[in-house]
Protein backbone atom coordinates (compact mmCIF):
# COMPACT_ATOMS: atom_id res chain seq x y z
CA UNK A 1 0.00 0.00 0.00
CA UNK A 2 1.26 3.44 -0.87
CA UNK A 3 0.54 6.51 1.27
CA UNK A 4 0.77 10.23 0.55
CA UNK A 5 1.31 12.72 3.35
CA UNK A 6 0.06 16.05 2.03
CA UNK A 7 2.26 18.99 2.98
CA UNK A 8 1.08 22.61 3.04
CA UNK A 9 3.15 25.62 4.08
CA UNK A 10 2.70 25.53 7.86
CA UNK A 11 2.05 21.79 8.20
CA UNK A 12 4.03 20.54 11.21
CA UNK A 13 2.83 16.98 11.90
CA UNK A 14 3.87 15.69 8.48
CA UNK A 15 7.06 14.05 9.81
CA UNK A 16 5.14 12.29 12.60
CA UNK A 17 2.58 11.04 10.11
CA UNK A 18 5.26 9.84 7.69
CA UNK A 19 7.17 8.04 10.45
CA UNK A 20 4.01 6.46 11.84
CA UNK A 21 3.45 4.81 8.45
CA UNK A 22 7.09 3.68 8.28
CA UNK A 23 7.31 2.46 11.88
CA UNK A 24 3.90 0.85 12.26
CA UNK A 25 3.38 -0.52 8.76
CA UNK A 26 6.67 -0.41 6.92
CA UNK A 27 4.72 0.55 3.80
CA UNK A 28 5.67 3.07 1.11
CA UNK A 29 5.00 6.70 1.93
CA UNK A 30 5.83 10.00 0.22
CA UNK A 31 5.55 13.62 1.23
CA UNK A 32 3.37 15.28 -1.41
CA UNK A 33 3.61 19.06 -1.73
CA UNK A 34 0.36 20.99 -1.97
CA UNK A 35 0.91 21.97 -5.62
CA UNK A 36 0.81 18.33 -6.79
CA UNK A 37 -1.81 17.60 -9.44
CA UNK A 38 -1.76 13.81 -9.49
CA UNK A 39 -2.37 11.43 -6.60
CA UNK A 40 -3.22 8.42 -8.74
CA UNK A 41 -0.15 6.51 -7.44
CA UNK A 42 -1.48 6.55 -3.86
CA UNK A 43 -3.93 4.30 -2.04
CA UNK A 44 -4.10 6.28 1.20
CA UNK A 45 -4.07 10.06 1.60
CA UNK A 46 -3.03 11.48 4.97
CA UNK A 47 -3.66 15.16 5.68
CA UNK A 48 -1.53 16.04 8.71
CA UNK A 49 -1.85 18.61 11.46
CA UNK A 50 -0.22 21.99 11.78
CA UNK A 51 -1.14 25.53 10.88
CA UNK A 52 -1.51 25.45 7.11
CA UNK A 53 -1.20 28.94 5.68
CA UNK A 54 -0.87 30.27 9.21
CA UNK A 55 -4.58 29.60 9.83
CA UNK A 56 -5.24 32.83 7.89
CA UNK A 57 -8.92 33.72 7.53
CA UNK A 58 -10.02 30.40 9.14
CA UNK A 59 -8.18 27.16 9.91
CA UNK A 60 -7.93 25.24 6.64
CA UNK A 61 -9.71 27.89 4.56
CA UNK A 62 -6.75 28.71 2.33
CA UNK A 63 -5.30 25.18 2.25
CA UNK A 64 -8.55 23.75 0.90
CA UNK A 65 -7.98 25.77 -2.28
CA UNK A 66 -4.49 24.34 -2.90
CA UNK A 67 -4.19 22.44 -6.21
CA UNK A 68 -3.67 19.09 -4.47
CA UNK A 69 -7.08 19.34 -2.84
CA UNK A 70 -8.82 18.75 -6.17
CA UNK A 71 -6.92 15.46 -6.30
CA UNK A 72 -7.87 14.66 -2.70
CA UNK A 73 -11.53 15.25 -3.63
CA UNK A 74 -11.10 12.97 -6.63
CA UNK A 75 -9.43 10.27 -4.50
CA UNK A 76 -12.20 10.50 -1.90
CA UNK A 77 -14.85 10.17 -4.62
CA UNK A 78 -13.06 7.10 -5.98
CA UNK A 79 -13.32 5.51 -2.52
CA UNK A 80 -9.65 5.82 -1.64
CA UNK A 81 -8.86 6.10 2.06
CA UNK A 82 -8.42 9.65 3.31
CA UNK A 83 -7.52 10.64 6.89
CA UNK A 84 -7.33 14.21 8.17
CA UNK A 85 -5.87 14.81 11.61
CA UNK A 86 -6.22 18.07 13.54
CA UNK A 87 -5.53 20.82 10.96
CA UNK A 88 -6.07 18.06 8.38
CA UNK A 89 -9.59 17.57 9.78
CA UNK A 90 -10.16 21.33 9.54
CA UNK A 91 -8.97 21.27 5.92
CA UNK A 92 -11.33 18.40 5.05
CA UNK A 93 -14.35 20.20 6.55
CA UNK A 94 -13.45 23.43 4.75
CA UNK A 95 -13.07 21.41 1.55
CA UNK A 96 -16.58 20.03 2.00
CA UNK A 97 -15.35 16.43 2.23
CA UNK A 98 -16.69 16.18 5.77
CA UNK A 99 -19.72 18.00 7.22
CA UNK A 100 -19.58 20.65 9.95
CA UNK A 101 -16.77 22.97 11.06
CA UNK A 102 -14.20 23.34 13.82
CA UNK A 103 -14.42 26.46 15.96
CA UNK A 104 -12.49 27.91 18.90
CA UNK A 105 -12.29 25.69 22.00
CA UNK A 106 -14.95 26.79 24.47
CA UNK A 107 -12.17 27.21 27.09
CA UNK A 108 -10.29 29.53 24.69
CA UNK A 109 -7.19 27.55 25.64
CA UNK A 110 -4.87 25.58 23.41
CA UNK A 111 -5.34 22.09 24.86
CA UNK A 112 -2.37 19.75 24.57
CA UNK A 113 -2.64 16.50 26.55
CA UNK A 114 -3.70 12.86 26.24
CA UNK A 115 -7.46 12.24 26.11
CA UNK A 116 -9.64 9.18 26.37
CA UNK A 117 -11.45 8.41 23.14
CA UNK A 118 -14.39 6.10 22.78
CA UNK A 119 -14.54 4.18 19.51
CA UNK A 120 -18.11 4.75 18.34
CA UNK A 121 -17.76 3.13 14.93
CA UNK A 122 -15.34 0.24 14.48
CA UNK A 123 -16.47 -0.42 10.91
CA UNK A 124 -14.62 2.36 9.12
CA UNK A 125 -11.46 1.62 7.16
CA UNK A 126 -9.48 3.46 9.83
CA UNK A 127 -11.03 1.86 12.93
CA UNK A 128 -11.75 -1.75 12.00
CA UNK A 129 -8.96 -3.10 14.26
CA UNK A 130 -10.61 -1.53 17.33
CA UNK A 131 -13.64 -2.81 19.20
CA UNK A 132 -16.79 -0.70 19.27
CA UNK A 133 -17.02 0.98 22.69
CA UNK A 134 -13.31 0.53 23.37
CA UNK A 135 -11.67 3.50 25.11
CA UNK A 136 -8.20 4.42 23.85
CA UNK A 137 -5.69 7.10 24.86
CA UNK A 138 -4.52 9.46 22.13
CA UNK A 139 -3.19 13.03 22.57
CA UNK A 140 -4.84 16.21 21.39
CA UNK A 141 -3.10 19.50 20.57
CA UNK A 142 -5.46 22.19 19.32
CA UNK A 143 -6.98 25.59 19.96
CA UNK A 144 -9.80 25.19 17.46
CA UNK A 145 -11.12 21.67 17.77
CA UNK A 146 -14.63 22.45 18.89
CA UNK A 147 -16.66 20.48 16.35
CA UNK A 148 -19.87 22.22 15.35
CA UNK A 149 -22.71 21.18 13.09
CA UNK A 150 -26.41 22.02 13.15
CA UNK A 151 -28.91 19.65 14.76
CA UNK A 152 -30.07 18.25 11.44
CA UNK A 153 -26.49 17.32 10.49
CA UNK A 154 -25.86 15.84 13.94
CA UNK A 155 -28.95 13.67 13.58
CA UNK A 156 -27.79 12.40 10.19
CA UNK A 157 -24.25 11.75 11.53
CA UNK A 158 -25.81 9.62 14.26
CA UNK A 159 -28.23 7.86 11.93
CA UNK A 160 -25.47 6.96 9.45
CA UNK A 161 -22.93 5.92 12.10
CA UNK A 162 -20.60 8.72 10.97
CA UNK A 163 -19.47 9.56 14.50
CA UNK A 164 -16.19 7.64 14.72
CA UNK A 165 -14.72 8.85 18.03
CA UNK A 166 -16.16 10.72 21.01
CA UNK A 167 -14.31 12.11 24.02
CA UNK A 168 -14.58 9.81 27.01
CA UNK A 169 -14.95 11.84 30.20
CA UNK A 170 -14.24 15.55 30.08
CA UNK A 171 -14.84 17.14 26.67
CA UNK A 172 -11.69 19.25 26.06
CA UNK A 173 -13.18 21.72 23.58
CA UNK A 174 -16.98 21.88 23.80
CA UNK A 175 -17.74 19.91 20.62
CA UNK A 176 -21.37 18.96 19.90
CA UNK A 177 -22.15 15.42 20.97
CA UNK A 178 -18.61 15.14 22.45
CA UNK A 179 -17.46 14.47 18.89
CA UNK A 180 -13.72 13.93 18.39
CA UNK A 181 -13.81 12.40 14.91
CA UNK A 182 -16.27 11.72 12.09
CA UNK A 183 -16.40 10.03 8.71
CA UNK A 184 -18.15 10.83 5.45
CA UNK A 185 -21.25 8.87 4.53
CA UNK A 186 -19.30 6.28 2.53
CA UNK A 187 -16.90 5.78 5.46
CA UNK A 188 -13.66 6.13 3.44
CA UNK A 189 -12.90 9.67 4.62
CA UNK A 190 -12.22 10.19 8.34
CA UNK A 191 -11.33 13.40 10.17
CA UNK A 192 -10.37 13.70 13.82
CA UNK A 193 -8.83 16.24 16.18
CA UNK A 194 -6.69 13.82 18.26
CA UNK A 195 -3.32 12.72 16.87
CA UNK A 196 -3.06 8.93 16.36
CA UNK A 197 0.35 9.42 14.69
CA UNK A 198 1.67 10.69 18.04
CA UNK A 199 0.51 7.52 19.80
CA UNK A 200 2.15 4.66 17.92
CA UNK A 201 4.64 3.47 20.57
CA UNK A 202 4.66 3.05 24.34
CA UNK A 203 7.78 5.25 24.27
CA UNK A 204 5.50 8.09 23.19
CA UNK A 205 3.13 7.44 26.10
CA UNK A 206 0.61 5.36 24.17
CA UNK A 207 0.52 2.96 21.26
CA UNK A 208 -3.26 3.15 20.93
CA UNK A 209 -3.12 5.11 17.67
CA UNK A 210 -1.22 2.38 15.84
CA UNK A 211 -4.42 0.45 15.09
CA UNK A 212 -5.66 3.28 12.88
CA UNK A 213 -2.73 2.56 10.59
CA UNK A 214 -3.06 -1.24 10.73
CA UNK A 215 -6.81 -0.82 10.15
CA UNK A 216 -6.42 1.04 6.88
CA UNK A 217 -3.75 -1.36 5.66
CA UNK A 218 -6.05 -4.31 6.38
CA UNK A 219 -8.96 -2.53 4.69
CA UNK A 220 -6.83 -1.93 1.63
CA UNK A 221 -5.56 -5.52 1.59
CA UNK A 222 -9.07 -6.86 1.87
CA UNK A 223 -10.20 -4.65 -0.97
CA UNK A 224 -7.27 -5.79 -3.08
CA UNK A 225 -7.50 -9.45 -2.21
CA UNK A 226 -4.20 -9.68 -0.29
CA UNK A 227 -3.91 -11.53 3.03
CA UNK A 228 -4.72 -9.53 6.14
CA UNK A 229 -1.97 -9.07 8.71
CA UNK A 230 -4.38 -9.39 11.57
CA UNK B 1 -15.49 50.03 -6.49
CA UNK B 2 -15.04 49.22 -2.83
CA UNK B 3 -16.71 46.31 -1.07
CA UNK B 4 -16.93 46.14 2.68
CA UNK B 5 -17.58 42.61 3.91
CA UNK B 6 -18.73 41.75 7.42
CA UNK B 7 -18.49 38.14 8.59
CA UNK B 8 -20.14 37.26 11.88
CA UNK B 9 -20.62 34.04 13.80
CA UNK B 10 -24.15 32.67 13.39
CA UNK B 11 -26.52 33.44 16.25
CA UNK B 12 -26.88 29.79 17.29
CA UNK B 13 -23.12 29.11 17.24
CA UNK B 14 -21.13 29.66 20.43
CA UNK B 15 -18.63 32.54 20.31
CA UNK B 16 -16.14 31.78 23.12
CA UNK B 17 -14.06 34.82 22.19
CA UNK B 18 -17.08 37.12 22.42
CA UNK B 19 -18.01 35.62 25.79
CA UNK B 20 -14.49 36.24 27.14
CA UNK B 21 -14.53 39.86 25.96
CA UNK B 22 -17.96 40.36 27.51
CA UNK B 23 -16.57 39.03 30.82
CA UNK B 24 -13.63 41.42 30.62
CA UNK B 25 -15.90 44.39 29.88
CA UNK B 26 -17.96 43.51 32.94
CA UNK B 27 -14.76 43.27 35.01
CA UNK B 28 -14.04 46.84 33.91
CA UNK B 29 -17.44 47.90 35.21
CA UNK B 30 -19.36 47.90 31.93
CA UNK B 31 -22.12 45.83 33.49
CA UNK B 32 -24.61 46.87 30.82
CA UNK B 33 -22.90 44.68 28.21
CA UNK B 34 -25.30 41.77 27.83
CA UNK B 35 -23.59 40.10 24.90
CA UNK B 36 -20.51 40.41 22.67
CA UNK B 37 -20.14 38.81 19.26
CA UNK B 38 -16.83 39.05 17.43
CA UNK B 39 -16.58 38.96 13.68
CA UNK B 40 -14.39 40.02 10.77
CA UNK B 41 -14.32 43.18 8.71
CA UNK B 42 -12.78 43.09 5.24
CA UNK B 43 -12.21 45.80 2.65
CA UNK B 44 -11.98 44.74 -0.97
CA UNK B 45 -11.06 47.04 -3.83
CA UNK B 46 -12.72 45.69 -6.94
CA UNK B 47 -11.85 46.43 -10.53
CA UNK B 48 -15.32 47.05 -11.88
CA UNK B 49 -17.85 49.83 -12.20
CA UNK B 50 -20.80 47.52 -12.78
CA UNK B 51 -22.68 47.31 -9.50
CA UNK B 52 -24.78 44.27 -10.45
CA UNK B 53 -21.69 42.33 -11.48
CA UNK B 54 -19.87 43.34 -8.30
CA UNK B 55 -22.86 42.29 -6.20
CA UNK B 56 -22.89 38.86 -7.79
CA UNK B 57 -19.11 38.41 -7.63
CA UNK B 58 -18.72 39.49 -4.00
CA UNK B 59 -21.57 37.18 -3.00
CA UNK B 60 -19.73 34.30 -4.68
CA UNK B 61 -16.49 35.29 -2.90
CA UNK B 62 -18.29 35.20 0.45
CA UNK B 63 -19.87 31.83 -0.26
CA UNK B 64 -16.67 30.24 -1.55
CA UNK B 65 -14.04 31.67 0.75
CA UNK B 66 -14.62 34.73 2.88
CA UNK B 67 -17.24 33.09 5.11
CA UNK B 68 -17.81 29.50 6.16
CA UNK B 69 -21.59 29.40 5.97
CA UNK B 70 -21.74 26.39 8.31
CA UNK B 71 -20.80 28.69 11.20
CA UNK B 72 -20.81 32.23 9.82
CA UNK B 73 -23.16 34.80 8.30
CA UNK B 74 -21.98 37.52 5.97
CA UNK B 75 -23.21 40.80 4.56
CA UNK B 76 -21.51 43.39 2.42
CA UNK B 77 -21.80 46.93 1.17
CA UNK B 78 -20.67 48.29 -2.19
CA UNK B 79 -19.44 51.81 -2.59
CA UNK B 80 -18.23 53.86 -5.54
Radius of gyration of chain B: 16 Å
Task: Determine the mean pLDDT of chain A.
Answer: 96
Low-pLDDT runs of 5+ residues of chain A are: none
Helix content of chain A: 10-25%
- Report Rg of chain A: 16 Å
Number of strands of chain B: 3
Largest sheet of chain A, in brief, is:
9 strands, mixed
Terminal CA distance of chain A: 16 Å
Can you describe this structure?
The complex is a heterodimer of chains A (230) and B (80). The mean pLDDT of chain A is 96. Chain A has 230 residues and is of the alpha/beta class. Chain A has a 9-stranded mixed sheet, with helices on both faces. A two-stranded antiparallel sheet of chain A has the order 5-8. Chain A is globular, with a radius of gyration of 16 Å. Chain A contains 5 helices and 11 strands, in the order E-H-E-E-H-E-H-E-E-E-E-H-E-E-E-H. In chain A, strand 1, helix 1 and strand 2 form a beta-alpha-beta unit. With 80 residues, chain B is of the alpha+beta class. Helix content of chain B is 35%, strand content 28%. Chain B has helices at residues 16-27, 51-66; strands spanning 2-9, 40-45, 72-79. The longest helix of chain B is centred in the last third of the chain and has 16 residues, at 51-66. Chain B is elongated, with a radius of gyration of 16 Å. The N and C termini of chain B lie close together (5 Å). The model of chain B has no long low-confidence stretch (mean pLDDT 96). Classes of the chains: A alpha/beta (230), B alpha+beta (80). The A-B interface holds A 57-58, 61, 65, 93-94, 99-101, 103-108, 146, 148-150, 174 and B 9, 12-14, 16-17, 20, 65-66, 68, 70-71.
Fold topology:
The complex is a heterodimer of chains A (230) and B (80).
Chain A (H helix, E strand, L loop, with lengths): L1 E6 L6 H12 L2 E6 L10 E4 L19 H11 L3 E5 L1 H8 L6 E3 L7 E9 L15 E8 L3 E3 L2 H9 L3 E6 L10 E5 L5 E4 L17 H14 L7
Chain B lengths: L1 E8 L6 H12 L12 E6 L5 H16 L5 E8 L1
Antiparallel strand pairs in B: 1-2, 1-3
Amino acid sequence: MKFAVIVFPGSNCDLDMYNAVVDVLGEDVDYVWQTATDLSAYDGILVPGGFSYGDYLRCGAIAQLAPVMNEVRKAAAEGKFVLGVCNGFQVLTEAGLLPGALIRNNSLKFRCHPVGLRVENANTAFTRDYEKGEVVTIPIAHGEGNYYCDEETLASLKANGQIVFTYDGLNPNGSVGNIAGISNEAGNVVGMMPHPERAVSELLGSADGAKMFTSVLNAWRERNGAASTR
Amino acid sequence: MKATVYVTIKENVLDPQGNAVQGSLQTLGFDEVAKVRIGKYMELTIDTTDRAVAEERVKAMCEKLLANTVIEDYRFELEG
